[in-house]
Model the fold of this input.
Amino acid sequence: MQEDTRQKAAIPFWRDERILNILGQVLFVVALLFVASLIYQNMRAGLARQGISLTYGFLSGISGFDISETLFAYSRTSSYWQAYQAGLLNTLSVSIVGIIASTIFGVILGVARLSTNFLINRLAAFYLELIRNLSLLVFLIFWYLGVFLKLPRVREAVIWPGDIYLTNRGVGIPWGLPTDSYPTFRLILLVGLILAVVVFLALRSYSKRTGRAPLTTVWTLLTFIGVALAGWFILPENPLTLDIPIIEGLNMTGGKVLSPEFMALTSGLVLYTSAFIGEVVRSGILAVSKGQVEASRALGLNAFQTLRLIVFPQAMRVIIPPLTSQYLNLIKNSSLAIAVGYPDLFYISNTIQNQTGRAVEMISMVMFTYLMFSLITSAFMNWYNQRIKLVER
Amino acid sequence: MRKTFWIVSLLIAASLVFAACGGGAVSGGGETVTVVETVIVEVPAEGAVVAPSGFGVTLETVRARGNLICGVNSQVPGFGYIDADGNFSGIDVDYCRALAAAIFGDATKVEFRPVTAAERFTALQSGEIDVLSRNTTWSLVRDTELGGNFTATTFYDGQGMMVPADSGINTLQDLAGGTICVQTGTTTELNLADVMASLGVSYTPAVFEDADATFAAYAEERCDAVTTDKSGLVSRRTVLADPSAHVIMDVTMSKEPLGPMVRHGDDQWFDIAQWTVFAMIAGEEFGVTSANVDSIRSSATNPEIRRLLGLEGDMGLKLGLDNDWGYNIIKLVGNYEEVYNRSLGPDTPTYIPRGLNSLYTEGGLLYAPPVR
Done:
């Protein structure tokens, strides 16, 4: 008993490693918070000396400037806050289009890189090495000044089949113009979607019950398309009319005009990110043991089936984490839009900052917004990763 | 497991204490406030010594550093431009040299810091530059919310519009449905929106970060027209591939008084920056040039000229400078006319007729208060 007490007394708390560890951490946090508050107070004092207060009230003021492309009605009488939202939506649209396109392209590249066909294999390797060693900024400026602004002038537009207009004012494509029956059609599409889900679930439970493999995907899609087509023809008036771009006055009107800024930014980001995704996919496929492929071939599955049913599901476990960081990179890299004049979140907040002089407020808003984008993306990808990762029983 | 638990809970406890500290500073009460209070007291005191703003501090900082840091443009020939040899030129640049001459008696003691339209005010607010001399339009918001003070107008300008000569566009109405290139972070961007809205003309803006990008896009015919201050159009036209293929439309969309800007709160520095402009204008009014300033100095009888050149009174000392500040400005840099002609005169590719920028005695707007 006595011995025990003596042993405890032998290690005083300032020499107890466990306590010291904790103490070190606490001291670090205290120091960090102290420095942060010092910086904050210094900034407040500095701003106050110049008669500038820190407030977000200015966001409700009238912006006074125009934005070249917005997803909702915006004019110079809209507020700074609406301008910010317009930029936010533009960043989101570039990010979503970019992520989808670069995933598709990246997977193709990754598979091509491993192809046994010498030509495909070498071409993919050349492309990957070339793109991965470029600076993205240079690449974007190349696409903007070197490709999309070099397209013909409006009056000399090149017209591709399908009424696709190529000009240096943008790429004009035919676009659907909603008519009076469009709202009804949207309801029909919703019904189609619900039906498709029902069909999907029914087929899956049938497959589990009986062990047969019906073409679930095909039937699900067919259900949706069938309902959509039925809706399109049953309605008294077609829900969308085709609006073809025409050249009128100084610019193209009608259809949908994709601006050279948008095209340059999106194609630059997609081609750049897909090279990295290609490498991620390649490493994922290589991580699947060769025995899996051999076993699958021995079962009589063909090469495509092997890839789709055996290799990819296992490769995904390796692919998802680095793929997540590529998605985050793409979202953050979209702020290079400023180099090609595309009004994204960062660009518009820069403009607001210039017109109001509210540097600290705008930077803090931008930082918070990108942080949110990143956290939401990685939360979603982590959830997906949890779902598909190897479940050991 | 247990260790992690302890660390986490201690961290949470620590952050709670600090969160309470932060709150305490506002609400008051409790022991923790003392800690925060020391922080508040300490920082401004320290900041006042380090930060280059505050009353009378800028001149000391500049003197101690041994040179003036001047925020300028680097992309507008005639105003602020880096030429092929890497030298800065233009009237905004010469103003910086004049200010250095007034302070140091040496026009070369300037460090030119190129700033974009977008970053210029932050650079001034944060003390990165001592003075902003970069075709900046004097406006109420900039005078108040941006924490700056405009000293004087060095160039009276107006916003214009440039179009390709073969475009057939003559009026702003002809631009309906067109695309207009404009630089962001400028009053230009706001004026364009205002004017087009009041005319009821719809257009698409193509907005770029700096002048080079704006005019590069215009040169590629990304847009039907490009807009900025008329002086900027004249100057940028000279660096387009074929200057004669572009015309500046006969419209003036706004008033654009351009001039140097300093930070709020340092009245002495404001006076020095302002009187440097006035000394150059007064020099032209009295016919004192860099060539004849020495002979005039030895023979002048006009009391105002004698005060300007530091022969009578203590005008320079009142500003906190040497008494021959005015002499130094004119001797080392020149009077307003010399500076103007060097960058924008008839012999330069960026020729802009004096117009409003003539002396008041010749029907212009330039007017220096009396040196007395």
The first helix of chain B runs from residue 2 to 27. The two ends of chain B are 81 Å apart (CA to CA). Residues 16-54 of chain B have pLDDT under 50 and may be disordered. Chain B is about 45% helix and 15% strand.
